[in-house]
Amino acid sequence: MPRTRTTVTTTSRTRTRAEEQARQLAARQEAERRRKVLRAGAVVVAALVVAIVAAVVMSLSGGDDDASPAGDVVVPAAATADGRIAVGQAEAPVSVAVFFDYMCPFCGRFEAANSAALDRLIASGQARLDLRPMSFLDPQSDGARFSTRAANAVATVADGAPEQVWAFHRALFAQQPEEGTKGLSDSELADIARGAGVPAEVVARFDDAEFTGWVADVTQKAFEAGITATPTVMVDGHVFTGDLYTEGPLTEAVAAAAAAK
Q1: 15-57 pLDDT, tens per residue?
Q2: What are the chain's domains?
Q3: Angle ∠(196,103,35) on CA atoms, nearest 5
Q4: Exposure string (b/e) for 5-15, b if CB count within 10 Å is 16 or more?
């Protein structure tokens, strides 16, 4: 049947309503994502206050001077005190920073859309990736602290086998657990790491939880720096405001940043 003016107008109105509904849904999802981060930030602050008070009490009570207090901040060899784990060539013209939590479903969507493109940018030397792990979604893993355990595992790889960090990171998101579950077990994290080429002696260190203090510290520093949602992506220090969940826009932003130099 020919498309009359009436059918075209009706179709256009239907499409407009559908697009508006999609925009409203995306706005609600973004608002909920930000609320979760802000609520979790308050939990992190409260936990740090409790830890500080406990440390002061131990000090005043004459605790063992040789004991190492829980939550000591040990920075991985291939990371920084403020939370950066660099992947790629240091001299790459453009830097891309990604703040994420391994339990965050929106981060999973970002990785699914962009990890292959990021891999190409890193391999070609066009961009350096700064992984910025956070652990604010620990309360969403039913007491299993999955966000911290996964970030600690990645930090351990950054310390002992930094050339495998990117492969391990991608593998973790490829097998990301559902938010609200206990997440991956320690043995599953170890299996994924071995599958990503992490040496056995580095995997064996996961259980030491050596970098959990660093994970908590950099999570708090990210909040203090103004991070209010994950994923938050920055290109050369500027927040990327384009589409995070479709392949292409981020690559275009990197190309534009390189061209502007």
Answers
A1: 455 555 555 555 555 656 555 555 554 444 444 443 333 333 3
A2: 85-259 (3.40.30.10)
A3: 150
A4: eeeeeeeeeee
